[in-house]
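On to our target:
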Amino acid sequence: MQQQSSVGTRSLSASRAEMSEILMPNDTNNLGRALGGRILEWMDVCGAIAGRRFAERQVVTASMDHVDFLAPIDVGDVVTVEAYVFDTGRTSMDIKVDVTAERPSEGDRRETITSFFTFVALDDDEKPSPVPDLVCDSQEERELRDSALQKRREHRAALAEEFE
């Protein structure tokens, strides 16, 4: 996706966003587990925050890749959503969003959901606007970027195989 931008550079760490919620009964199904739509909403919001921090302007969701629900989230769990930009185009940003759930009283923390979102930056007229180029200032940032790029490639390859 990488294309040159005319608005400078920003680091992966400049985009990082994290938010936490307690899964309440209104956010659950009849089994006391998270409603997928509620968690997707939180993921979209966290991804938008990461995109806004990175682009320093308003963003809109352009797409969301396949979502992997890895483990259930139960009522009362602390849900943490984390997001960061891992690739950029001229006006778009690819953002990895991960969700974990934990029971602090039990010392239990587990990965529950992961997905990739694409957001587009907007100018004051709500037209697509250039975004900075992504730079990775540390080995940790390079590893996060490379891991996200690899996982997205694997997701897309798996989906392509399903449709062959």
Notes: The domain at 9-162 is CATH 3.10.129.10 (Thiol Ester Dehydrase; Chain A). Residues 70 and 135 are 30 Å apart (CA to CA). Residues 139-162 form the longest helix (24 residues).
